[in-house]
Amino acid sequence: MSHDDPNFDEQLRSAVHVAELPSLLPAVAYLTGDHTLLREDLRPGVHPTPLGLEPQGGLSSEQQELGRTLAMRALRDWHRAGRPAAPDYRPEDLRVLMEFVTGPVDTDYLSLFLGQLGVDVNGPDWTLEDVRPDREFRVVVIGAGMSGLAAAHRLDEAGVPFTVLERNADVGGVWLENDYPGCQLDTSNFCYSYSFAQHAGWRYQYSRRDSILEYFRDFAEAQSLRHHIRFGSEVSAARFDEDARIWRLTVRDTADGSVSTIEAHAVISAVGQLNRPAFPATPGLESFTGDAWHTARWNHDVDLNGKRVAVVGTGASSFQVVPEIAEAAEAVVLFQRTPPWIMPTPNYHAELAPGLRWLLREIPGYHRWFRFLQFWVGVEGRRRYALVDPAWDKPGSVSEDNHALRCALEEYLEREFADRPDLLAHVVPDYPPYAKRMLRDDGRWASTLKRDDVELVTESITAITPQGLVTANGSHHEVDVIIYGTGFRASEFLVPMDVVGRGGANLHDVWGGEARANVGVTVPGFPNFFLLYGPNTNLVVNGSIVLFSEAEVDYVMACLRTLFDADARTIDCRPEALERFYERVDAASAAMAFGVEGVHSWYKSSSGRVSQNWPLSTLEFWQRTRGPDPSEYVLDRTV
Ligand code: NAP
């Protein structure tokens, strides 16, 4: 938009009315350099309530009016002055602006914050050429999903030669594989995107799958990563050769089945947690004569129009599928074993307001502050609702805060199903909020369950027959199609890859079904082998999974730097370090709602131990991933 565009003032006025002032005011102060906007009497209180953030930081309507007037005036002047670029800020100068949103915070948060504002202070400040110019070193990254691409980007920046092996034909990982109807984010995509590749053009707060996939494709393209990726290449084994101190990977070409070997000095596994479909062990599963598939392997050849469709499960995937397919199918029978808790989210399916999109597009840097506000609210914000109070004894909750959240969520369900007490009786969970994955909705779930052509079945499935499903009360539900929304084998990390480390130790034998890795990244006896989105790095109530993957990549890069600095051949975690890490992590998991006994979820291994989630603060993970503690690692310098 040119600076003499007469529409600017008008568009600005309507845009400013839909903006959240806690992000608009620092954004305008940042852009114009006019920090007088950040007045004490306009300082937002951004403390979350059980159901989220108070609108406009709790500012009164008079305060809001004043904030809008000041922001508009400053932006008009900026526009008339020819839209100059924001002044140069040193990282420490940004603190004042950030603390307008956050209030005074622990200094250790600042490097975390800067990244969220797009100041890329966390990338490698070294290259292999600088540190060890004569060193021959090659890394193999397994997987080109969200984590693998982040690793590829940082390796590329550091000039460390690498190859990415990806079994699919494209990048994107779960966002490529999951193309079921209704697939979309249920965390804000402003936070579910790399801090170092922020995007102002999102149309939704909770993007559709195609936009997320496009984001990862564009990122791979823009960073010229594609030529490093070997698509259609599935790693079946990785073996460490102790004499040569080399990893040898067995790679199957998915097109022709041929097998080859690739050597690497280090391996970064970025294979994810949620991509191996889990099917129920129900008798007769194979006997069904209709079409059947898993949500993550959608069969687009079958038209559901006029079909009777069974959907098994009410987790995040089915929750998005059912409202979509109910429109087409003749009837949907939904089999629910456990109801989900639902966070009311009025804008869950809505496009961002046009004014907001205008601001994101026209006001440079606004999207960073929009992200920053969401990030700050989410970073530790909801953790307190999931903490167990050992003295708390009310069933169905784990603390006073958790109980307050439970009451608010129950009220929402009671309102949504007020006209259908028969359904209400089945949709209120008996377990504490955050013991399982919380879902989001804007009323669509309730309206779908109330449809005449949707039946909610809560009897357990006892058998599958050639024609349908039988439940414990003996009912036989005849259907044409069965869709399994039954989740993933999340605790079986790296299965079916055969990973063999020092002394011929097989990773799966070492783990014995209980995957553990120091800082979620390294496993003793598996030198130069690093995991991304590994054990205990999944996020439930605080932070963003993208932030965690970025942090893990920082840690891997710092391990490599340590290796090069010492001119060592390998870096290997000490077993005592792993034990110490797990004393802390396991104790913390037991003190979180998702660790309580008696609630089954994909967060836990088959023994009931939480092996997927990070149970501590985001800040602690951030601090631990700034680099390896030298006392926790052995460097092998022998030539
Ligand atoms: P899930 O959360 O593991 O849900 C599986 C569902 O299947 C549960 O309702 C489970 O019931 C049910 N189930 C399993 N076996 C069953 C059986 N034998 N009989 C009846 N019901 C059975 O899997 P998901 O929905 O695919 O989601 C997995 C994770 O992927 C999510 O938690 C989320 O992290 C991620 N995801 C994210 C998004 C997003 O961002 N929008 C979308 C989809 C998935 P129980 O609860 O009783 O076990």
List keywords for this structure.
single chain, oxidoreductase, FAD-bind_Monooxygenase_sf, NAD(P)/FAD-dependent oxidoreductase, 15% strand, 23 strands, 19 helices, oxidoreductase activity, alpha/beta, flavoprotein, five-stranded parallel beta sheet
General description of the model:
This is NAD(P)/FAD-dependent oxidoreductase. Keywords: FAD, Flavoprotein, Oxidoreductase. One of its GO terms (molecular function) is oxidoreductase activity. InterPro entries: FAD-bind_Monooxygenase_sf, FAD/NAD-bd_sf, Flavin_mOase, Flavin_mOase-like. It is a single chain. The chain has 639 residues and is of the alpha/beta class. It has a 5-stranded parallel sheet, with helices on one face. The protein has a 5-stranded parallel sheet with strand order 10-19-11-12-15, covered by helices on one side. β17 and β18 (476-478) form a beta hairpin. α1 (7-18) packs antiparallel against α3 (61-80), α2 (21-32) packs parallel to α3 (61-80) and α7 (146-157) packs parallel to α17. The model has no long low-confidence stretch (mean pLDDT 95). The structure holds NADP nicotinamide-adenine-dinucleotide phosphate. Residues 184-186, 274, 280, 282, 295, 312-318, 335, 337-338, 437, 461, 485-488, 600, 602 line the site of NADP nicotinamide-adenine-dinucleotide phosphate.
